[in-house]
Amino acid sequence: MKQKVRVVMSSIIMSGCLSGLATEGPDVYRSPLVFEDDIRQFEISDLESPPPAGAIVCTGSSSMRGWHSTIREDLAPLDIIPRGFGGSNMNDLLHYVDRIVIPYRPRAVVVYEGDNDIGQGVPPELIILTARKLVRAIHAELPDCRLYFLSVKPSIKRWGLWPQMQEVNRAIHAMCEEDYRLTFVDIATPMLGPDGQYREDLYVEDDLHMTEEGYRIWKKILRPILMAGELDR
């Protein structure tokens, strides 16, 4: 029996085949079609310079998108395909998974979603339901693909929503414990100070997106986990 990948705390154009999955809770999640232009730009880029198969797709919302400039260097020598699209939520990623994840036949996927979901008023239980659908959609096509879920980060702007974010993090952690192909990566705890409060030095002027120091923390936490789980595969 395969052992579960360890859970770590704190420390091409295809369309339509999975899109119908992203219709849960239409009165809560707004239409994913607002990102159509962003996704087409990825597809145009893929036609001009096809990414390698068997790489690691790193996808999610603006915090992931903000890492694009250095993520390949930060996670080298692993082959990384950056596919963050700013403003996205878990339902948006589910809607476009057949276009910006599955066509690359990745061996692993790193996901950062849930932050905007909470900010948009989506209840934690619906976020987790959507995350489970995302996992099923990927494993239906790529049964051996491993998924690394980054915890929802704290931020100054959304500090009042931190309890809901913690609830989402606990639920994603529990989900990951159910399947050896899933790993929960806690990047949130190292972003808090000794008093359990947010650190002002980790955020730019909008009080939401991260400074270089924030990304250094993400690199410090995520890189060794990916190296251990993916380097020799």
Oligomeric nature of the chains = single chain
Within CATH, the superfamily carries the name SGNH hydrolase
Report the sheet-strand fraction: 5-15%
Which parts are unreliable, with pLDDT below 50 for 5 consecutive residues or more? 1-26
Gross CATH architecture: 3-Layer(aba) Sandwich
Number of domain units = 1
Q: Secondary-structure element sequence?
A: HEHHEHEHHEHEH
Count of helices? 8
State the secondary-structure class.
Answer: alpha/beta
Describe the structure.
The protein has one domain: SGNH hydrolase (Rossmann fold). It is built from eight helices and five strands; from the N terminus they run αβααβαβααβαβα. Strands 2-1-3-4-5 form a five-stranded parallel sheet, with helices on both faces. α7 links the parallel β4 and β5. It is globular and about 45 Å long. The two termini are 18 Å apart.
List keywords for this structure.
single chain; 233 residues; alpha/beta; Rossmann fold; 8 helices
Question: Which secondary structure elements does this structure contain, and how are they paired or packed?
Answer:
Blueprint: H1 36-48, E1 56-60, H2 62-65, H3 71-74, E2 80-84, H4 90-100, E3 108-112, H5 115-119, H6 124-141, E4 146-150, H7 162-177, E5 182-185, H8 212-230
Parallel strand pairs: 1-2, 1-3, 3-4, 4-5
Helix pairs in contact: 4-6, 6-7
Compact overview of the structure:
This protein is of the alpha/beta class.
